[in-house]
Amino acid sequence: MREGYDFLTTVGVKFKSGVKGGELTSFKSGGITPLVFYPETSAQFVRLMSVLDNTSLKYKLLGAGTNTLIGDGGFDGVIVTLRDCKGFSFGGDIIEACAGVSLPQLAAFAAKDGLSGLEFACGIPGTVGGGIYMNAGAYGADIAGALLYAEIFDIGTKRIERYSAKDLDFGYRTSHLQGGGLTVLKAAFKLNPSDIAAVKLTMSAYAKKRAECQPREPSLGSVFKRTQGVIPALLIDKAGLKGYNVGGAFISEKHAGFIINKGGAASSDYISLMQKARLTVKEMFGAELMPEIEII
């Protein structure tokens, strides 16, 4: 553990020191972070953040790490991951879930009770908190369409406040949360009562479609955002970059919108492939690819 971080270990929140990036992100790469905290409740998170905010230490909040790349040099600060903040409750057509619940778990929980509206999330490898942060979606649906409200910690006021979906100003893979200072701790989703078998059938169809067209190797999901008139995977494919690699990182031959880790890939390999794709597509088609992932 780096000198000067020791006092944080007395806050009463589970932690690990010297954590490799591969333990924190779905691409399975990245250098070492000196100290990582794993709060299990909202109270623990608030207590930790109140302490951290009164220091000069750099910190980063993380969910399941499915759209974040940690550099080969690691993160020079403290990471707080909400992946252990889990728990469900429901009443009628409303499900409430903590930030660390995975989106597939949330979808399965809803399906079990015949509630429709989250089927699209059955294969998205992220968490409730991360999904709201980036307005995760698939198959023409997204989090914004199902969200009733979110309980959010404001680092400025040190208070937990309730935000409606409208308050969060959702857009395509964007939300008001991306402005910083706000963290989802819990969220409620208003769903539609339906036939259990029908909901599960839809989820099975989505899962099959995803398996057929998306790679299974470690990745961070779609590398670039879809923008009006620009479908990144199609342009990368047309540019002949499927299968192109740098080290252990490859542009997937199954879906050109993914960069996969075939074993031993460094974060710098991933970044080099991003740059290659952006430059090639710009030169060939005049289109600007915008990253969907975050690099820290």
Largest sheet: 5 strands, antiparallel
* Intertermini distance: 20 Å
Number of H- or I-type helical stretches: 7
What shape does the CA trace take? globular
Strand content: 25-35%
Helix fraction bin: 25-40%
The count of strands amounts to: 19
Computed Rg:
19 Å
Strand adjacency order, main sheet: 6-7-13-11-12
Structural class: alpha+beta
What is the succession of H and E elements?
EEHEEEEEHEHEEHEEEEHEHEEEHE
Q: Low-confidence spans: pLDDT under 50, at least 5 residues?
A: none
Q: Quote the average pLDDT.
A: 94
What multimeric state do the chains show? single chain
Helices and strands, with pairings:
Layout: E1 15-20, E2 32-37, H1 42-52, E3 59-62, E4 68-69, E5 78-81, E6 88-91, E7 94-98, H2 103-112, E8 115-116, H3 128-133, E9 137-138, E10 141-142, H4 143-146, E11 147-154, E12 159-164, E13 182-190, E14 192-193, H5 196-213, E15 219-222, H6 232-238, E16 245-246, E17 249-251, E18 258-261, H7 267-285, E19 294-295
Parallel strand pairs: 2-5, 3-5, 4-19
Antiparallel strand pairs: 1-2, 6-7, 7-13, 8-14, 9-10, 11-12, 11-13, 15-18, 16-17, 17-18
Helix pairs in contact: 2-5
Model description:
Helix content is 25%, strand content 26%. It contains seven helices and 19 strands. The strands form six sheets. The chain has a five-stranded antiparallel β-sheet. Helix 2 runs antiparallel to helix 5.
